[in-house]
Design a protein that fits this description.
- Pfam families: Fapy_DNA_glyco, H2TH, zf-FPG_IleRS.
- Belongs to the FPG family.
- GO terms for molecular function: 8-oxo-7,8-dihydroguanine DNA N-glycosylase activity; damaged DNA binding; DNA-(apurinic or apyrimidinic site) endonuclease activity; lyase activity; zinc ion binding.
- Keywords: DNA damage, DNA repair, DNA-binding, Glycosidase, Hydrolase, Lyase, Metal-binding, Multifunctional enzyme, Zinc, Zinc-finger.
- The radius of gyration is 20 Å and the shape is elongated.
- Strands 1-6-7-5 form a 4-stranded antiparallel sheet, with no helix packed on it. Strands 2-3-4-8 form a 4-stranded antiparallel sheet, with helices on one face. The chain has a two-stranded antiparallel sheet with strand order 9-10.
- It is an alpha+beta fold.
- The chain folds into 2 domains: 132 residues, MutM-like, N-terminal (N-terminal domain of MutM-like DNA repair proteins, Alpha-Beta Barrel), CATH 3.20.190.10; 140 residues, Helicase, Ruva Protein, domain 3, CATH 1.10.8.50.
- The chain is built from 9 helices and 10 strands.
- It starts with a helix and ends with a helix.
Amino acid sequence: MPELPEVEALAQDLTGRLDGRAIVTVHVPQFSALKTYDPPISALEGTMVDGVGRHGKFLDIDASGTHLVLHLARAGWVRWREELPSLPPKPSPKSTLALRIVLDDGTGLDVTEAGTRKSLAAYVVRDPLDVPGIASLGPDPLTDDFTAQRLAEILEREGRKQIKGVLRHQGTIAGIGNAYSDEILHAARMSPYKAANSLTDDELAVLYDALRITLGEAVDRSRGLAASELKGEKKSNLAVHGRAGRSCPVCGDTVREVSFADSSLQYCPTCQTGGKPLADRRMSKLLK
């Protein structure tokens, strides 16, 4: 799933490609991806792209004051096309194409979504805050006003909730998903199950630094990369997420996994839980 660093890099890449270009039309072969009807998708036709920005994990294309907002969900992506087919795409249950944005010079964007679970969302709105997911976002963790004190207030408010869930809840802190919450907690040497309001002052300082450094460095590594390079860059720099069964790059212990109904987390027992593996309920059921 694209998270804050990848969406930030996408916004930067698309800014250079779309600035000053006119949108000729937007095709929506996967009509279920379009979540709004007023303004209609046709309101984008003939508009000039004024900028591309980010709100948490939402990508925002500002076209003459009308905004095309994309949430790429778990398996969505944006692909730049130097040349587009002359014929419009046809709806097909086998196609990964959700939207196609056609520009005035014949180039454009394909917004795709792999897999059968379709959750990519597109919104055409007059104001990004008209998108419910943006209106309910928590603070952006890379802004200047996201201080250690603000993080402390958030954690205290969340009480006994597990720190992993607090970090990735978009209404609490915007932009951090499953992958970077694993990476932040590994960098902070902290259990994903630790209660949010149980951190000492020293632990809070370590977590805050891990959060800002992990996300900041990921943004820096992604800056200047084309959209086609971002997935590989992210994967190649992960320490624990998606690396279950491999060696921790810090201590050499085996990275472990806890599986849930529709997701999983990865962690290093030596670095994060005092050498003790966390209970994996799915594996426990299989062993009974």
